[in-house]
Amino acid sequence: xxxxxxxxxxxxxxxxxxxxxxxxxxxxxxxxxxxxxxxxxxxxxxxxxxxxxxxxxxxxxxxxxxxxxxxxxxxxxxxxxxxxxxxxxxxxxxxxxxxxxxxxxxxxxxxxxxxxxxxxxxxxxxxxxxxxxxxxxxxxxxxxxxxxxxxxxxxxxxxxxxxxxxxxxxxxxxxxxxxxxxxxxxxxxxxxxxxxxxxxxxxxxxxxxxxxxxxxxxxxxxxxxxx
Length: 227
Prior knowledge:
Elements: H1 3-8, E1 25-29, H2 32-35, H3 47-58, E2 64-68, H4 70-77, H5 89-92, E3 93-95, H6 107-133, H7 140-156, H8 163-175, E4 178-180, H9 184-192, E5 197-198, H10 203-223
Parallel strand pairs: 1-2, 1-4, 2-3, 4-5
């Protein structure tokens, strides 16, 4: 082999390093993260404070993308003081409806939903029967109050009972996203669909970890920048 080939050959030259950038993890948010007083305490004492804290932390994160269906976003705006919300809300929190006419849902979920509804209706009837039988022992106001409480528990807890709930599930499934919600019905059906979920009381820790990871990656990119 000639000296010229040795000098200009590629075998002895180090190949440039290639940094592989992973796509951002997508996160779908439910309003319960901000409006439920039992779970928002890590972010703020009011829905407005909780949303402000989230936006402050999320603005520092480049490895996550945050989404909310328009139906849920509209619901959220009813609970916050709009004049206190930063203008970058729409930049950080993306509004996206699920592709309702394109997504496919396993048929077994429909069977389970129907069976669940049948059991809940029967349970509701039994609760109503007990309320009627107790009419002679309790005042009408007491009966109505107890009936409403037990009936709500029987028919609404642990089930998806609104179009907004369905929007959240479908969007999380479409984006292969992490779902943040305190709604037990959403969590139950998320597990049935194989959707990742996280309880809101762990959400701030999740954000802080993402901020730390973002800074680590930014440092690596700076170190690899050629002089």
